[in-house]
Design goal:
The protein has 173 residues and is an alpha+beta fold. It has a single domain (6-169), classed as Aminopeptidase (3-Layer(aba) Sandwich), CATH 3.40.630. The chain contains seven helices and seven strands, in the order βααβββαβαβααβα. The protein has helices at residues 16-27, 46-54, 97-107, 122-129, 138-148, 153-157, 165-169; strands at residues 6-10, 58-64, 67-77, 80-88, 113-118, 134-135, 159-163. A seven-stranded mixed sheet has the order 1-2-3-4-5-7-6, with helices on both faces. β3 (67-77) and β4 form a beta hairpin. The chain is globular. The N and C termini lie far apart (52 Å).
Length: 173
């Protein structure tokens, strides 16, 4: 019996529909976590996805048996790299796919990595903490979100930021 194949690759224009489908599927986990005044249907529109790509978010995908099952974006902003839009299809979760993507993206940059997520998404926070990221204080979170992200004040209020070891070592705290 042939062995199942898995790979990580950069997503291109032809993948946008699949990237979108993965985001919509996986975002269901946030439905009851995101404050009701921040949740919308769909979670992200195709135009919003395209705007993120146009703003420099480079998506990478985890492909299993020639089918994308997860995506994670990286965006270079000023002197850091942001992990953006990390989603694994519901059917592929808890199999190490997200960790493999994060590990791959870590190797793609020498810049400090920052991640923002919803404050009540405990599983997402735990995912990054288990991979060496640390939550920053509320004050530092506000400063970082304002400096590196373009999000609404309400989203800023209901989010957290985690930083990697490189950020901690650079003394930028």
């Amino acid at each position: 019996m042939p062995k199942a194949t898995a790979s990580i690759r950069r997503c291109g224009r032809s993948d946008v529909e699949t990237v979108y489908a993965i985001i919509i599927d996986a975002a269901e986990a946030y439905r009851d976590v995101i404050p009701p005044d921040c949740w919308k249907e769909p979670y992200m529109t195709k135009d919003e996805l395209q705007s993120e790509i146009d703003a420099g978010v480079e998506f990478w995908g985890y492909e299993f048996e020639n089918k994308l099952v997860a995506v994670m974006g990286i965006q270079l902003v000023r002197d850091v790299a942001l992990i953006r839009h990390a989603y694994v299809r519901t059917s592929g979760q808890n199999r190490g796919v997200g960790g493999a993507l994060l590990s791959h993206l870590r190797q793609k940059t020498t810049r400090p990595l920052l991640v923002g997520t919803w404050a009540d998404a405990s599983w997402a926070i735990r995912f990054y903490e288990n991979r060496g990221f640390q939550l920053v204080s509320s004050m530092e979170k506000d400063e970082l979100l304002q400096r590196y992200w373009k999000i609404s004040p309400r989203q800023r209020e209901t989010s957290v930021v985690l930083v990697d070891q490189k950020w901690l070592e650079t003394g930028k705290r």
